Amino acid sequence: MGAKLKVAGWVVVGALAGGLTTMQLQATARSNPVNQLPLEELQQLAEVFNVVKTSYVDPVDEKKLIRDAIGGMVSGLDPHSQYLEGKNFTEFRESVSGKFVGVGIEIGMEDGLVKVVSPIEGSPAFKAGIKSGDLITKIDDTAVRGLTMDQAVKRMRGDRDTKVILTIFRKSETRTFPVTITRSEINVQSVSAKMIEPGYGWVRVRQFQEPTVIDFVRKVNDLYAQDPNLKGLVLDLRNDPGGLLDAAVAISAAFLPQGVTVVSMNGQIPQSRAEFKAVQRDYSRRSGFDPLKGLPDAVKTVPVVVLVNEGSASASEIVAGALQDHKRATIMGAQTFGKGSVQTEIRQLPVANTSVKITTARYYTPSGKSIQARGIVPDVMLDETAEGNVFAALRMREADLDKHLNSGQGPEVKDAAREKAREEQRKKLEEEAAKSAASPKPLPEFGSAEDFQLAQALNRLKGKPVLVSKSAVERKPEASTTN
């Protein structure tokens, strides 16, 4: 059982990568005349409500029953539609805005402990002296070992100006010590960048949020300030779960010729039938100014490699698909998650702090392909490490989710071989973990000197040989469970 839990922990990133492509439209819920409502079914709903209210073993909250009914109606549509209220509403707004209240660290897991990947510059954790590589062993009085990453994150977050005590083990100093941190509002850094070596830059987009485009422009300008004659750029979208549609269009437009199509979408309501091009009006509708105006002209022509993997979903797939179809970049890595649907947040609800995030359209790459339940197939397939793939077979993707939409483009066949491969790999890792009494070795940090895929991307930009995967093949489209 312990081995199973250890292995499951490494599947989280892929399993959560369903992601979002969220449109912030002022969409209006269309109201049907009363005579068009299914009265017989509504009467049945009222009867069931009354039975539960009067006959359940304990008294029930009527309002909660109604909220649960609404939630069930929406969540029954597909994996990405959701009724948002309370904590779910707050967390969704935070994910879009790039702001939350917490201590300000990017984290991973190592040997059952929370590992600090990086403190966010200027955050309470940064000011308190937390360093990359620190291991958090306790959060207040709760031991971290045994918690999931999500549980650890929730314990570190809280209300503004409240305190949390983190117990830190610092390997380099072989000591453990407590740090008291006062929570505050954190502005997430969704973009990071650095020079890999002279002439070659690396830009990583973690998620497409409201500040992402501004951050991207600033980071790219920093790279060109270091070297105005960049020979190549790696755009890293691995494990990027998606985010705002206009941010994805903007990042695509940064590299593409003016006016070409980035993505199109089609759905039932008029607002969901549109084509988005590499023009200002299509990626800066809310701000009114062009955030890409300050980019150097060389960005339009610099050779680009885009790195993707099974965790690249939704908005990140839009960017990869646009640059691939226009032959503007070489896509390298693994076949992506396959989330080709758009969600619209509809806020015109009578109860405060509630909204409905509902799937309103499928989106299509410039060549007209739907990647729903399929994904983007890289131009060059890469393994995760020089030794091969460790966790790739375990990662969930869109076609593995219950009630997922089909692509809308032709028949799809269930890939039983993928299910078998996932189960075999899971058992293998569990057996290895049981024998060694340790968690599987984590993959190197993206952007580090040990990052095998980044090294191959750099080789591609230099015209050197690339260690192409010998085992990876294009995954077959899989059938929807409902459509």
From TrEMBL:
Keywords: Hydrolase, Protease, Serine protease. InterPro entries: ClpP/crotonase-like_dom_sf, CtpA/B_N, PDZ, PDZ_6, PDZ_sf, Peptidase_S41A, Tail-specific_protease. Residues 412-434 have a biased composition (Basic and acidic residues). Residues 402-450 are annotated as: Disordered. PROSITE patterns: PDZ. SUPFAM superfamilies: ClpP/crotonase (SSF52096), PDZ domain-like (SSF50156). Gene3D superfamilies: 2-enoyl-CoA Hydratase, Chain A, domain 1 (3.90.226.10), 2.30.42.10, 3.30.750.44. SMART domains: PDZ, TSPc. Pfam families: CtpB_N-like, PDZ_6, Peptidase_S41. Residues 89-157 form the PDZ domain. Transmembrane segments: none annotated. CDD domains: cpPDZ_CPP-like, Peptidase_S41_CPP. It comes from the Bacteria. Belongs to the peptidase S41A family. This is S41 family peptidase. It comes from Piscinibacter gummiphilus. The lineage of its organism: Bacteria, Pseudomonadati, Pseudomonadota, Betaproteobacteria, Burkholderiales.
